[in-house]
Amino acid sequence: MGFEPTTSWLPAKRSSQVSYIPKACGKLRELIFKKQIPSDEFILQKRNFTCKYFFMTTQRLNGSLYTVIENKIATVEFGHPASNSFPSELLQRLTDELNNLSSNPDVNLIILKSEGDGAFCAGASFDELLAVSNLMEGTSFFSGFANVINAMRKCSKLIVGRIHGKAVGGGVGLAAACDYAFATVDSAIKLSELAIGIGPFVIEPAVSRKIGKGALGEMTLAAHEWKNAYWAQEKGLYAKVFETKEDLDKELEIFTSKLASYNPEALSEMKKVLWEGTENWDTLLYERASISGKLVLSDFSRNALNQFKK
After folding, report:
1. Which pTM does this prediction carry?
2. Which of 14, 150, 152, 179 has the highest CB neighbour number within 10 Å of its CB?
3. Could you give the domains of the chain?
4. How far is CA 100 from the centre of its chain?
5. Higher per-residue pLDDT: 252 or 14
6. Which residues 6+ apart lie within 8 Å of 260 measured at CB?
7. What is the C-alpha to C-alpha distance for residues 296 and 310, in angstroms, rounded to an integer?
8. Numbers of helices and strands, H then E, in the chain
9. pLDDT digit string (tens) for 280-295?
């Protein structure tokens, strides 16, 4: 699933905490988005409501996740100090949050994004991959992205991806599982799994659904090559590619505001239509996780991973 060296953090007691920041929090809310408020927690009483925010910086090694709901749009942002890669805990938290938003009547649309100006997502946690010692652990490890992709697939709300930078492995899977994706010229993609003795088996159904088997094969077999954002757009992974992040964000705001204003029942029904024929993913993705879990224990993978570790 594409891997980036990482370590682990974030107390388990915070693993399910998500923040909702109403627009009326005004200037304080703006400062938080700019990350000018370093406190872990604040509560603001204003206009007869409570604005509560748990600030999670990407220095915490189990990752950060927070949600903002505004004008019927839920913006879900994840982060990790190792190029926004995913340890298992963060994958589970994202899965749980998507499931919660799916049944939230105050949400018509979801934006999925990641923190910072670097990579969008470097895939799964390299440290956790190195720690796999048996088939059960391996299957569980690779099931993390299966859980997220299935949550995105079954979510009743359309999901728009903000892919601001490079995506590797599981990051490509996340982009593919979005119903619509905006990107920048920096949003190159790569499937590097064969280089470490496994393959993009779990994310393959989502990626193939968007770009086709031929393009998937081109990416997978050339595991060392990056495909640029315009290639990804041509193949159908990205709907639009922008020169700058600022241009992306302007168009994203216009597009999502319009989309969120439409009949929510129609949006939900359209979501079902877009994902017709994927019902078997409830079993398929976990079968694929088992394949990867077995392969990662092979001598080839162990040797390749040790080379990365050095």
Report:
1. 0.83
2. 152
3. 3-309 (3.90.226.10)
4. 16
5. 252
6. 71, 72, 73, 108, 109
7. 18
8. 11, 12
9. 999 999 999 999 999 9
